[in-house]
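FW: tagging you since you asked about this chain on Friday. Here's the raw sequence from the shared folder, copied in full. Didn't touch anything.
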Amino acid sequence: QVQLVESGGGLVQPGGSLRLSCEASGFSLDYYGIAWFRQGPGKEREGVACISGRDGSTYYADSMKGRFTIAGDKGKNTVYLQMNNLKPEDTAVYYCATDFEGFGCTVVLGAALGYRYLGFWGQGTLVTVSS
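HL: got it, structure written out here
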């Protein structure tokens, strides 16, 4: 069964950290990149970070640089999103996604409504940043 399953969300205080996981099954991340998106209450879905399946290059939305780190473990077929110094405005459902027709990380992160380039999504994991 082809799946993306996110985990690791939860409640964290401002300034805290979380590591989200995106485990792929039914296909190999040796061949497909993974992008993380998030959607906050009443907001459009926005790109966070992306890792290329071809060469492992990493990319970040400008507003996410410095606090978020994306990394892959091909042995576990899993991509991680390390989030540090979290702020209340980071509260959102975080999704990982890919597309089996291929996609470019710079395109999905840089384009308006870039999430529309990705056709396969996990169910999301909720991150709440609050004191």
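FW: The mean pLDDT is 95.
HL: agreed, and The helical segments are 105-110.
FW: great, closing this out.
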